[in-house]
Design a protein that fits this description.
Blueprint: H1 4-15, H2 21-38, E1 45-52, E2 58-60, E3 65-75, E4 78-81, E5 83-84, H3 87-93, E6 107-111, E7 114-117, E8 125-133, H4 150-164, H5 168-202
Parallel strand pairs: 5-6
Antiparallel strand pairs: 1-8, 2-7, 3-4, 3-8, 6-7
Helix pairs in contact: 1-2, 1-4, 2-4, 4-5
C-alpha cells in the first residue's frame, strides 16, 4: 500500500509542481471521501460489539461511521436482527421514545455516530453492528486505507490540481481516467468480497441437498 507521501510524489513527478503540496493533500482527502461515498469498500467494514445499559435510548457508534448495514440485538444466547429505518419514518412511528415503556428494541435509526432505539432498554444488552467507517489520512506516513484505490486517487489528485490551475482540458482527461479507475477498483473489491463469502461458506458446506444454498460468485461479473 502507498502512503500519503508516496501518492503525492506520484502527482509531483507528473506535474513537476513541488509548490502544490497543500492543494495535493486536499485533493487526496476529497478523492478518498468521494470514493467512500460511492461504494462500500471492504476495508471500510468493521464489526463492532457495542454495550448498552438499562434505560438507554441510544448508543454511540465508532467515530466517522458512514452507515450501518446490519445490527443485531444480543440477549444472552438469544438475538434478533434490528430493523434499521430512515430517521423520518422512525420518528413518525416513535415520536416520544423517552416516554415509551422500557423494551427490548426492534427498530433503530442512525444519525451521525449514534444509533437510536425505539424505546428505553429494559436491561443491559449488547448490539452487534456492521459499520462502514469513513477512511482518512492523518499524516504523510498514513497508508492508503483503501488499497485498491492507489491509481484512482492519483488520477483524482491530478484532475483537481489541473483544475485549480485553470488547465481545464487536462483536468477533464484525468477526471475521465479517475472514473474508469474507480469502476475497475470497485469491480476488484466486489470480486474479492465474493471470494471471501465463498471461503466462509466452505467451513459449513451442506451435508445433503436439503441444506443446500446458492452462493453468488465473482464469475457473475463477466456475464
Amino acid at each position: 500500500m502507498s502512503t500519503r507521501a508516496e501518492l503525492r510524489t506520484r502527482v509531483v513527478a507528473i506535474t513537476k509542481r513541488t509548490d502544490k503540496t497543500t492543494v495535493i493533500n486536499e485533493a487526496l482527502d476529497m478523492g478518498l471521501a468521494d470514493a467512500a461515498w460511492r461504494h462500500d469498500w471492504r476495508q471500510m467494514k468493521s464489526i463492532e460489539t457495542l454495550s448498552a445499559s438499562d434505560g438507554d435510548t441510544s448508543i454511540s457508534l465508532p467515530t466517522g461511521t458512514h452507515h450501518v448495514s446490519e445490527a443485531r440485538f444480543i440477549n444472552g444466547t438469544q438475538s434478533h436482527k434490528l430493523i434499521i429505518l430512515p430517521r423520518t419514518r422512525f420518528l413518525r412511528m416513535f415520536p416520544n421514545v423517552a416516554d415509551a415503556q422500557e423494551t427490548k428494541p426492534q427498530y433503530v435509526y442512525v444519525d451521525n455516530d449514534t444509533m437510536f432505539f425505539n424505546g428505553p432498554l429494559s436491561d443491559d444488552f449488547d448490539i452487534y453492528a456492521t459499520c462502514y467507517i469513513l477512511p482518512s489520512f492523518t499524516d504523510d506516513s498514513t497508508e492508503n486505507p483503501i488499497s485498491v484505490l492507489n491509481n484512482a486517487l492519483t488520477y483524482f489528485m491530478l484532475s483537481f490540481l489541473y483544475d485549480s490551475m485553470e488547465m481545464f482540458s487536462a483536468a477533464r482527461v484525468w477526471e475521465g481516467r479517475y472514473e474508469r479507475a474507480l469502476r475497475q477498483a470497485r469491480l476488484t473489491d466486489i470480486a474479492a468480497a465474493g471470494a471471501e463469502i465463498i471461503a466462509e461458506g466452505f467451513h459449513g458446506m451442506p451435508k445433503d441437498n436439503s441444506d443446500a444454498w446458492t452462493l453468488w460468485t465473482p464469475d457473475s461479473l463477466s456475464t
